[in-house]
Amino acid sequence: MTFGQRLITLRKARKLSQGDLGKEVGTSGDIIGRYERDEVTPSVEVASRLGVSLDYLSGKTDTELDNAALGRIRGITVMPEEDRKQVFLVIDALIRDFKARKAYAQ
């Protein structure tokens, strides 16, 4: 998926017009349209205002991490090692339980 395709998906998921998204990131709707058509690529500064990771936008990952999720991850990284281990144990348990529920639901 190209940057433009990811941007379209992101914008539609937020139910925004090109003009509305342009206002949010400090550009115009016409420029957003050019980004979506892959005619031009935004600067890192503009792309970072879209509220998702640059790795997702650039296609390095298919996992869309929003700023809230990234903020939580940053918070975990500054914890002492023992606290981080506890957080990851809880996360791992929740993921395991989610996968089990999903498997049994099918």
What is the CATH superfamily classification of the largest domain? lambda repressor-like DNA-binding domains
Mean pLDDT: 92
> How many strand segments?
0
Low-confidence stretches: none
Note the main sheet.
none
Number of helices: 7
CATH class bucket of the largest domain: Mainly Alpha
Helix/strand order, N-terminal first: HHHHHHH
Shape: elongated
**Fraction in helix:** 55-70%
Number of domains: 2
Summary, kept brief:
With 106 residues, the protein is an all-alpha fold. It has seven helices and no strands.
Descriptive report:
The chain is 69% helix and 0% strand. With 106 residues, the chain is an all-alpha fold. It folds into two domains: 56 residues, 434 Repressor (Amino-terminal Domain) (Orthogonal Bundle), CATH 1.10.260; 39 residues, no CATH class. The radius of gyration is 18 Å and the shape is elongated. The model has no long low-confidence stretch (mean pLDDT 92).
Highlighted features:
106 residues, mainly alpha, 434 Repressor (Amino-terminal Domain), 2 domains, 7 helices, 0% strand, elongated
